[in-house]
Amino acid sequence: MSDYLPPPAPPRSALTLRLWLAGFGLVFNSVAGWLALRADLTWLGILLLLLAVVCLVDFGWVVHRKRRGDPG
């Protein structure tokens, strides 16, 4: 018998997962915030749109880090 082990699979990027989550959060919070404002739930709409801005900033930061070549 051979003691050969196949090479391990390359690790998945945590930054890519964070990019996907930020993108989902951006779309979800933007649409939900707009719908809340249309339903006259002003405080909820503003809160959701603020969360969308946070997701947008996070998305931009992750793209910056990936372009810079950070591992992960």
Overview of this protein structure:
Keywords: Membrane, Transmembrane, Transmembrane helix. This is PEP-CTERM protein-sorting domain-containing protein. InterPro entries: DUF6343. The chain is an all-alpha fold and 72 residues long. The protein contains two helices and no strands. It has helices at 14-38, 42-68. The protein starts with 13 loop residues before the first helix and ends with a helix.
Q: Helix amount, in percent? A: over 70%
Nearest-integer average pLDDT: 91
Head-to-tail CA distance between termini? 36 Å
Strand content: under 5%
Q: Major sheet: size, sense and barrel closure? A: none
Radius of gyration: 19 Å
Which residues form runs of ≥5 with pLDDT under 50? Answer: none
Q: What shape does the CA trace take?
A: elongated
Count of helical regions:
2
Order of helices and strands: HH
Q: What is the strand tally?
A: 0
Content-based structural category:
mainly alpha
Attribute tags:
single chain; 72 residues; mainly alpha; 2 helices; 72% helix; 0% strand
Short description:
It is built from two helices and no strands. It is elongated, with a radius of gyration of 19 Å. Helix 1 runs antiparallel to helix 2 (42-68).
